Amino acid sequence: MSSGGCIGRERLNTDCEWRSDSVRIIDSREPADRRHLIDDARVAEELAIRYADLRWRVGEYKRRMRIECEMRLFNTIARNHGVALEDVFEARERLGDNRLDIAVILPIVMLYWFVVVRATGWVRRRFPRDEAWPALVATLFASLAISATVVLLGGLWAGTVEMLRVGNLHLSYRALRLPWRQQYSQLFIVGVVLFWLVALIRYRFATDEDQVPETLGSASML
After folding, report:
1. Of 37, 63, 96, at which residue does a domain stop?
2. Residue-number span of the structural domain to which 143 is assigned
3. What whole-number distance in Å separates Cα of residue 73 and Cα of residue 92?
4. In a domain, 3, yes or no
5. Same domain, 209 and 110
6. What is the pLDDT of residue 100?
7. Is 111 in the same domain as 73?
8. Are 38 and 49 in contact (CB under 8 A)?
9. How far from 120 is each of 129, 138, 198, 199, 200, CA to CA, in Å?
10. Same structural domain for residues 89 and 184?
11. Residue 144 and residue 192 in contact, taking contact as beta carbons nearer than 8 Å
């Protein structure tokens, strides 16, 4: 799943050369052609970053060389497909659209659900119904800590998936464009709310046996 949408390796090089792309007129208003133009913009960015990384380490000169390579490639794309240069730039902007990325979302949702079920189950068993305030405090701290941790892990995973797709460990400025990283605060709030909903449901339908504190349960077994 993480390799879905990967850049074709035959198109990659460190010489700022445009390869393995058909020369044909496209209509940027058509969904398939628009998708092709977006993919071309992604490849051009990767080629420019590889070109600059190989020849210069840091500094303004490296940035200028990357931009010059991008412009050369963007002009080639526009010429090959009979579109305006502005259309290529617009396609580049769409790389930052908040797309539904199953390769990123599904593993993180599965991790979050596993941790939340375990954590709310522990709180439910640890604090019986007559210990409402300790249960609320434990739920609050757990919801904040778990949501923050999972959101940060999601950001790391999103970067990993993107590195696999472009075949480059150096994302450069592209890391800031990842949809997950653009929505840290919203994802955190959603995580906290979902945690409380799960905790409420588990407390609502818990039986008396479920809510016997673990320490008392262990003592009774002795």
Report:
1. 96
2. 102-216
3. 12
4. no
5. yes
6. 67
7. no
8. no
9. 14, 9, 7, 5, 9
10. no
11. yes
Confirm whether 118 is domain-assigned.
Answer: yes
Q: Looking at the structure, do residues 114 and 209 belong to the same domain, yes or no?
A: yes
Other CB atoms within 10 Å distance of the CB of residue 19:
12
Contact assessment for residue 180 and residue 187, using Cβ atoms and an 8 Å cutoff: yes
117-129 tens-digit pLDDT? 999 999 988 888 7
| Region 103-125 average pLDDT | 93
pLDDT above 90: residue 74:
yes
- CB neighbour list of residue 95: distance below 8 Å, 6 or more residues apart: 38, 41, 42, 45, 174, 177
- For residue range 160-218, list pLDDT tens digits in order: 998 988 888 888 888 888 889 889 999 999 999 999 999 999 888 766 555 544 444 44
Q: What tokens does 68 get?
A: 């010059």
d(CA 222, CA 216): 10
Q: What is the pTM of this model?
A: 0.76
Q: 76 with 54, same domain?
A: yes
- Residue 136 structure tokens: 């609320």
Same-domain status, 112 and 209:
yes
Per the listing, tokens 């955190």 go with 188
